[in-house]
Structure formats: structure tokens, C-alpha cells
Design the sequence.
């Protein structure tokens, strides 16, 4: 299955959710709407609420444990590298972090080796 979420739908409204001992990361979405304005039209977006306490906003939730953490960390690393290579001033996250083949490692200065990243 493929899910496409476009930049204009993405918000900074993100939360951790738990259910039956599992942790998820929920990203809320807002669909932009074109509204007639005083001069021309304008784009607006916001949460979908019928009344206070009734939030029917769209959201995408990713569930997982260590695999989810590694996948999100890998995605951030790829974005950091892409934007840094294009001169956007983004630096790589954590100088001791290393990602290879979808696995996350942390550099241990004492042993001078890379250790697998374990999230508990």
C-alpha cells in the first residue's frame, strides 16, 4: 500500500499515542481549502472540529518499537543529507550517529567502535 501526503497537508501537530503496550507516532494533517477573499482567493487550513472536544482531523499513525525508531531516524538522516548537499544549511543530526542499510549505530569513543542503537 502506498500513502501520499503532500507538503501543504503536513502540520507540526505530532503526538505519541499508546495502545495495548504499543507506541505510535501520530502526524495530524490539514487539508487546505481555497476560500474566496476580499481580493481574489486564499488558501486556509485547520483542524476538523465540529465543536470543542470533537476532533475529527485526519491523521497518519506509525506503530512500532525499535524498528519504528530506526526507520524514522534513517528518514531524518536521509533528509539531512539531501538538504545539506543542496546548501540548505541543515547539518547531520548527532555527530556520533551512523546509519547503514537501515540499521542505526552509535559511536562508542571508549572502544572506538560502532555499537548497534538499542531503544528500550
Sequence:
Amino acid at each position: 500500500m502506498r500513502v501520499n501526503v503532500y507538503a501543504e497537508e503536513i502540520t507540526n501537530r505530532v503526538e505519541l499515542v499508546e495502545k495495548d503496550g504499543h507506541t505510535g507516532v501520530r502526524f495530524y494533517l490539514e487539508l487546505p481549502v481555497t476560500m474566496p477573499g476580499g481580493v481574489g482567493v486564499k488558501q486556509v487550513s485547520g483542524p476538523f472540529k465540529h465543536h470543542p472536544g470533537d476532533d475529527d482531523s485526519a491523521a497518519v499513525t506509525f506503530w512500532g518499537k525499535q524498528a519504528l525508531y530506526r526507520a524514522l531516524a534513517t528518514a531524518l538522516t536521509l533528509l539531512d543529507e539531501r538538504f545539506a548537499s543542496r546548501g540548505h544549511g541543515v547539518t547531520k543530526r548527532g555527530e556520533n550517529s551512523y546509519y547503514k542499510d537501515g540499521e542505526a549505530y552509535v559511536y562508542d569513543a571508549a572502544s572506538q567502535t560502532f555499537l548497534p542503537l538499542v531503544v528500550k
